[in-house]
Amino acid sequence: MRYQITGKQIDIGAALQTHVETELNVVLEKYSGRPTDATIVFSKSGHEFVCEATVHLSTGLTATAKGRAPEIYAAFDACSEKMDKQLRRYKRRLKDHHKERTSPVELIGASSYILAGQEGDEATEPDTLQPIIVAEMETKIPSLSVGEAVMQMELAGAPVLVFRNEKKDGVNVVYRRDDGNIGWIDP
Asked: Under the cellular component aspect of Gene Ontology, which terms does the record hold (predicted)?
């Protein structure tokens, strides 16, 4: 498994890196036998340290967790506990959905754009209908079943997930509705 442990404007020592790798290995081996890589980012927010962890599993799922504490080790421990709880909660569903899957989830490339928002009064008519592109990035769209897509969306804490439906081979969207239910768009 590959680890990327970084700090935003703070120095991460070798002892902390070893602690993170050891503790995260314990959590991941308990619930998931096939993690591919993990990204852990430490930062400071006011008087607290913040630890954000993202773990990509070979099943295509991405688990994210965030922890805060006055000390950096405690921030990681809080983040690790959330990751443990999240993976424990989905353990049965992960096993049930991925028994037959022997190869990693297929990912296809796509472009992702960030558009500039409206400045000033919303009632004024814009000069042009062409939006201003602020940033262009490369993103990956996973090939999943609908159940796996819903699980991925919940694990990531995202409001929406675009995926390629394995059964129909088309692009689909799952999203969290305002009433708390999950919506699914299948064009």
From this structure: cytosolic small ribosomal subunit
